[in-house]
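User: I'm new to structure prediction. If I give you an amino acid sequence, what do you actually give back? Let's try with this one:
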Amino acid sequence: MEGKIIYSVALLLSTHAGQNSDRQGCGHGVYSPFFWQSLRREALGPFTWVCVIRYQQVIDYGHQSALNIVSLVAGCLCAVGGSMVGNFQTVNQIHVHLVGAFLAFFIGNVYFWLQAALTYKIQPRHGGKWIGPVRIICSLVCTVCLCLVVLLHSLNKRTAAAICEWVAAMVLLLLFGLFAVDFRHIHGHYFHVIQEKSRIQNSTTTLEL
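Assistant: Good question. You get back a string of structure tokens that encode the predicted 3D arrangement of the chain. For your 209 residues, that looks like this:
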């Protein structure tokens, strides 16, 4: 499980590195997207899988709620946004890139605020008393950075905005990494499918009794 998280982080970091090389003129607009897409398309799966496992873990702890469902949707949208940011450059597809950035950063920030709330609703709470405050502090830092990004862009201070954007990205990666505290207690992950026929048979048997 920790290996998948590290793999996801490495892919996201390679995505940002590729964008910087494109902005500096190191990559050509035609060839660079195809090269990076071969890597970036694989970032969607691990991040989505992490969100799904976390969703199922909360259910297994007996807390299935609308909050958990909304959290899953937000996490998947964050993963899709990260893939969009990686696959579409700011030079050629600026609108799609901005949509992906909104999903990856802002919806991703919402996802971890929801996870911070879920931390206090499930038992056992892995990580003890520190995991909740750490998630809240990191989510707050990310929120402040994203607000500063919008403000600094409006003031045309792009260097400062880029710094805040990088800080927000690193905090989001740290928050994904914190799932290792919860996932190290998982021994396996299974999906169960109930066949319609057997469910009808069980219903008939119950009526006969």
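You can read the tokens as a compact description of the fold. Here is one thing that stands out. Residues 2-191 form one domain.
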